[in-house]
Amino acid sequence: MNDEVALIQAVSAIPNLDLLPSSASLNCKISAASLVCLLGQQFSVINAYMQMLAGINEPSSGSINYADILLNKGENNDCPAIAYLYHNSALLSVLNGIDNVKVPAIYHQFAANIEIDKEAHALVGELEYGADHLILPAFMSTLQRRHLLIVRAIILKPQVLFIENPFTSLDREQVRVFGKYIASLVKSKNITVITSNANLDFVRSYADKMIYITSKNVHVFNHWETFSDFING
Amino acid sequence: MMRSKSVISVSYVWQLLDVIGKSTTQFIINFVELVFFIVTVLRRGFSFIHKNKQNALIKNAVVREIIFDGVDTLMPTIIVLSIIIGFSVTAQLIMVLQTLGSETKVVTILLNFVTLELCPLITAIVIICRCGSALAIVIGNMSINQEVKGLELLGIDVLVYFAFPPLVSKAISQISLSVYFAALSITLGIFFSAIFDSPTNLKYFSILIDSIEPKELLYFLIKNMLFGMIIGANACYHGLHVSQSVTEVPQRTQKAIMNSLLSVFIINALFMI
Fold first, then answer.
1. Which of B143, B153, B243 to mutate to test the interface with A (most CBs of A within 10 A)?
2. What is the reported pLDDT for A78?
3. What is the ipTM of this complex?
4. What is the pTM of this model?
5. C-alpha–C-alpha distance, residues B220 and B197, integer Å
């Protein structure tokens, strides 16, 4: 984890929650190439904080500051520096897996088509589970669809990747494989991953920072032990 | 008693006028929104192509749509319909009209009625039923499944990726299918009239070709282009407006089909004026 570069900084930021209970302000610094987990009892509230951090929704008060390198990347390449995956994001049903992955890269002309094709095959090959990526998403497993959604997002080389509830509907073994894959993005690709989830095994094994959100307070932890002590009372 | 009956009938008339007024206002609002939609899609689409000349993504999508709308519709739908129109309309018109007027009048009526009015309208109806409805359903389902939103978050302009190719391809398909339809229905009609009436009717080939003017060709092209674009725009506009429920898909598809039909007939009427 690189503590020197704070990619995203939240200063007394409160998300805009029209129908949700009033929420507490968030103060935190998120470093480059780190894995941050947002936890709590209500996914809708947690996801509201995630969307606020990603800049999808403006905070009702406070501010979210992004590092210059994050903003410049977006301006220069016309590619989003922040990728966001909703819990119900889906692949295009009319394209096969590989074509789905290639669409954003071809659209943004990220590289020559041959290179994009190579890159797409290399990225989908990183998660080894013997799946055919030339079929339509309707015939894929949940794990394969989730994996390809992430690959489709990271083919644009974003600096920050937000993933809402990545482990929903996955079995224990799939959670293990997928969790390992998400953690590998931080180390191998230097991507800052911010995720909302309720899987404490994943949090304990991989999280660099834990943000625990209740309706009254937001607690930020930098170590599993302190978070664990807090949870256990 | 008489007075109360007349009061009731007056209130019904007012209600009827109210309904007609509201429907007309709604249709006009939708039409204006649709025109803005078309202008926005075309502006963004052509700007994207201009900026990314090497990018084949949108061009390939246009070609794929033309194959689906144009080539696949030609066989057998347009060919079968042109045989039927050739036999039932063109041949009948030639046989009836030549007993009533001169060759020039026969050709003028054939050209104005069959080529410039009937063929574009029937082609548009075929495209609305076959491709417009399918497109509205596909895009509607994609919107519900968050497939559209997923791409939007990756910096992809939804209007360029989803709406521009159908708009352009439907315009090209409508023009080309209309040309095929008109040519086949006129040719086959003259053949049928030659077989069933008199072989001298084959003379209408040369007279017809000589009487086509560039102004009429331009009119034919512009009208068909507008038909195609309005069909594509209606399908995309309503498909992209599906937001939450699966029940919205058939509702939006119905709206897309009805608005396309109404728009096509209104454009046709405006061209007559």
1. B153
2. 60
3. 0.82
4. 0.84
5. 30
